[in-house]
Amino acid sequence: MSNSRISKKEQRRFLRGLKEEKVLATKQINKEESNLDKRLKKYPKTKRFRVKDTIGVPHPYCITDMHVTYAANHCCGMLGKEAILGAEKNSKATCGICKGRLTYEQHETALLIEVNDKQPDLSKVKGLQKYLLSIKKRCEADGFAGFAFIQGGK
């Protein structure tokens, strides 16, 4: 009869390895967020318009319990892009909003433009078209799908 118990030393080594993986994954996430912040800061601001953030289009990809389970079983609990794609491929996981009509890769990201103007009809906001044309090439080069709008505080 073999002893299937893990020694305390092996447990500590295993937990240390998990901690190191978590630290590396956290650093990668922070790096990606920092890179996004840097990319967004490159867009010009005016008194009336600025790139405020990004937004998922047509909606954010919604993680489900199938994604979490896959990440726990195959990715050391790290729910990143690799886990999401793996869950879609191997566990038939889908976006919780559109229920598989779009894959993870088909969900895109758009720039969220803050418009400081009380005009509810965006086609009548002076200078908006010019501003959007001025950032269009950079938006495309950065891989964004387009623009979404939010009314600012003025």
Describe the structure.
This protein has 154 residues and is an alpha+beta fold. It has three domains: 8-34; 42-58 and 107-154, no CATH class; 62-106, no CATH class. The protein is built from four helices and three strands; from the N terminus they run H-E-H-H-E-H-E. It has helices at residues 8-41, 65-74, 81-91, 128-141; strands at residues 49-57, 108-115, 147-151. Helix 4 (128-141) links the parallel strand 2 and strand 3. The longest helix is centred in the first third of the chain and has 34 residues, at 8-41. It is elongated and about 75 Å long. It starts with 7 loop residues before the first helix and ends with a strand.
